[in-house]
């Protein structure tokens, strides 16, 4: 039974070579739900606000929005001017924008508590305080944002291409983003899937305006590619290639320090980092049984299962 569990990821990887891609699904379905989008948006906003950063200005960009653009639509409601969604896979989001807009509006208008516990127990970054980060808005500014005429116009503008939303998938071929034109770049559960991390951080740094910032929640766990939380690090590269199979994306297996190094390499300053620690008692593969180069990772990387990071481009 145990052996079957261990071989399952390899069997699925091999199956991707013979079965149609549609059999394997693409993930990213949570962003079709307004409460999830609100929870993600306000978690990033709360952490940014603590650092004196206001995400709801200028043009913002999201990496890997998945099935719905609700996180970005919420940010537009709260004052961002334009939103760019950049995914690898085209989820054909336009048809759901108006619906998610309507479902999100009451959460924002009523400044509801950030959804937590229950279905949201694993949503990160973890917060101690789930109150709406009202310090980002004066009463007068918030009333102006929620003005009926503004909201009705915005609903129209997000419902079709050519308005305040631009969606590029696959985004790697998109050449239209101007350097220094973006105020905030963010992602939720995406950067562990991106194959070309180097290029992603390089472009992000290029796109940010001076003083602009990134916030990313990254999950270093095995995502079903192994039974143990860190089991993806036990495969030598040739075996990993088979486990990954022909999928359009899987996980890149990069640990926390790779992200931190790339952020710094491209000239951004880390403002805040919130790691998610694991211990050996969490059922992981012992470090000595990992494959190289993971066996030689530092202790922090070995024990870090997630990271929320904020970094800023100097003025
Ligand atoms: C686990 S889903 C997360 C979706 C969404 N952010 C959420 O919070 O549910 C991963 C997303 O990353 C996207 N993705 C994978 N590789 C990518 C890449 N290189 N660039 C941008 N998005 C990518 C996938 O298409 C998918 O939408």
Describe, in plain words, how this protein is organized in 3D.
By secondary structure, the chain is of the alpha/beta class. The chain has a single domain, classed as Vaccinia Virus protein VP39 (Rossmann fold), CATH 3.40.50.150. The chain is 33% helix and 16% strand. It has a seven-stranded mixed beta sheet with strand order 3-2-1-4-5-7-6, with helices on both faces. Strand 4, helix 7 (197-207) and strand 5 form a beta-alpha-beta unit. It starts with a helix and ends with a strand. The model has no long low-confidence stretch (mean pLDDT 94). It binds S-adenosylmethionine.
Note the main attributes of this structure:
globular, alpha/beta, 33% helix, 7 strands, single chain, 315 residues, Rossmann fold, 16% strand, 10 helices, binds S-adenosylmethionine
